[in-house]
Write a structure and sequence with these properties.
The protein has 532 residues and is mainly β. The protein has three helices and 33 strands. The longest helix has 6 residues.
């Protein structure tokens, strides 16, 4: 029987009839019965293996003219095996190497695998290697015979041989590691932390056909290297390693420049990283007592560099820098910029704002021992007027004009002139003409007004303070120090005028704070005086 690829077989008349006087075998009918006498088709499959059948060969024209016999179905075919092709490998190739994970032929031998071309039940494929080492400097260097074997469940096996030849060393197959320059150069900051970065374990070894040059193989060579360090003339932190690789073919004569073969690999350790500037914080300073300018001491070395020394240059829009101090900073906001440059020309910039305010009080200067004349009248005791200009003796401020006011001492008699919180009730106490400011600012809810001074705070009584959103600040007389509120809910509404001794804020609604945009923040200047 000859089973096909599907493990099937049929019986022909010539398989059972002996002799040669049978005319055409196609004229015979074949009848097959199993052991129970049941007719079986003339097609045998794997499930029929091991069974016996009665087979009759009859003359189709005369059914009584028959002969018969027993047929046992067995599986005894020798597997048909296809060996991988013979091939030649480089002297350092591994004949047991397999394709990596993810490759279409994952885990198969790179040198090829035997294949079964016939039907074998549960085929098992194996191989055994026999190596013939031809010795140093032979060509071919070695020959490996790989015997493949296929065996099925029926115990029948087949073999074939694959020949793998190892070539002698060829310099043309050597690939040297790439240069590490320009964009692939090593960073000096990283090399400073790990010196192993410049070693071949990181920068690369030569390979033969992309495989390691070192290992157990048939390449008769010696490999080595040495390094030459070149300093970068423009950057103290940068240097170049010239790595001289030597490949010595033991099977060729020594010839200078040829054997050993010399290859130079360039490895640059470069500094292309800018210095790092610490966070520069915005600051607010006051003008100094002697001028209307601010002075700021700059942060001490707010930078560092990973590879080399750096220098800093401060750029200011106004003023000038001297000994790490900025002088002559004007009132307002100035942006200070730091430019840090390392020794390799890398630059980093950072900036912060300096806000200069006038927090220095005016300098009051008053005359002493002022003499005024009392005037007399028929209806009042003798009285006199004292003007602010009579008291001032050169009071001044570095940043602005000053407002001169005079006040009676708290325990001084009023002389029938009540005034406002210690002020006289006329305009003669001011040395400046009235300067009026109009405003549309008004609260949007009921307000409790709090007036704040250097000596503390107090809440004004509802009788003179605006008590609801209908009250609006309509006039500010800075010279007189007066605020004017008006009740806007009625025509020609009531007006309250009070001196402005303190800055004010208002509390609106559920605890939120509202501050008028026209609150005047100015130090009040108290002048001592004597009335005689």
């Amino acid at each position: 029987m000859y089973p096909g690829r599907q493990l099937e077989a049929v019986i022909n008349a010539d398989m059972l009839l002996k002799g040669d006087q049978y005319s055409c075998y196609e004229d015979y009918c074949i009848v097959i019965k199993d052991v129970s006498g049941k007719i079986h088709p003339n097609l045998f499959k794997l499930e029929d293996v091991g069974k016996r059948f009665t087979v009759s060969i009859c003359d189709c024209l005369n059914s009584n003219n028959c002969c018969w016999g027993y047929v046992n179905i067995e599986l005894k075919l020798i597997p048909k095996i296809l060996c991988p092709v013979d091939l030649t490998l480089a002297c350092n190739e591994d004949p047991l190497a397999r394709y990596p994970v993810g490759h279409p032929l994952e885990n198969q031998l790179i040198t090829g695998e035997a294949k079964v071309e016939s039907c074998v039940e549960n085929p098992r494929i194996s191989f055994v290697d026999h190596v013939e080492n031809n010795g140093t400097c032979s060509n071919p260097r070695a020959i490996l015979t790989r015997r493949w074997k296929v065996k099925g469940d029926n115990g029948v096996e087949a073999t074939c041989d694959q020949t793998i030849t190892f070539d002698a060393f060829k310099l043309a197959n050597v690939v040297f590691p790439k240069d590490l320059i320009a964009n692939t150069a090593l960073k000096c900051s990283e090399v400073a932390l790990d010196n192993n970065l410049t070693k071949p374990t990181n920068t690369g070894y030569p390979t033969i056909d992309s495989r390691p040059i070192f290992g157990k193989h048939y390449c008769d060579i010696n490999v080595g290297y040495n390094d030459q360090i070149l300093q970068d003339a423009n950057c103290p932190a940068a240097y170049e390693i010239l790595r001289f690789w030597f490949i010595r073919n033991e099977c060729a004569p020594l010839i200078l420049g040829i054997n050993p073969y010399i290859h130079i690999q360039s490895i640059k350790v470069d500094d292309r990283e800018a210095p790092i500037i610490d966070r520069l914080v915005d600051v607010t300073i006051s003008t100094n007592p002697w001028s209307c300018h601010g002075t700021l001491k700059l942060p001490k070395e707010p930078f560092y560099d990973k590879c080399s020394m750096s220098s800093i240059k401060w750029n200011v829009p106004y003023g000038f820098v001297r000994d790490s101090v900025i002088e002559q900073l004007p009132i307002g906001i100035s942006t200070i910029t730091a430019k840090v440059t390392d020794m390799c020309g890398n630059v980093a910039k950072g900036s912060f704002d300096v806000t200069v305010i006038d927090a220095a009080p005016p300098i009051p200067v008053a005359k002493q021992n002022i003499v005024v004349s009392l005037s007399g009248s028929d209806t009042a005791d003798a009285s006199a007027k004292l003007f602010a200009t009579s008291v001032d003796n050169g009071s001044h401020d570095n940043c602005s004009d000053v407002r001169i006011e005079i006040r009676r001492a708290l325990d001084a008699p009023s002389c029938s002139n009540v005034g406002y919180y210690g002020h006289n009730n006329n305009r003669t106490y001011s040395s400046m003409p009235g300067i009026n400011f109009s405003t549309s600012s008004s609260p949007t809810a009921n307000i409790n007004w709090t007036w704040t001074s250097n000596s503390g705070s107090r809440t004004r009584d509802a009788g003179v303070s605006p008590s609801n959103m209908n009250w609006k600040v309509v006039l500010i007389d800075e010279a007189q120090g007066q605020w004017t509120w008006r009740d806007m809910s009625v025509v020609n509404g009531a007006t309250v005028v009070r001196p402005q001794f303190w800055d004010y804020t208002g509390t609106v609604g559920a605890g939120s704070t509202w501050t008028t945009s026209l609150a005047i923040s100015r130090e009040q200047m108290l002048l001592s005086y004597t009335i005689s």
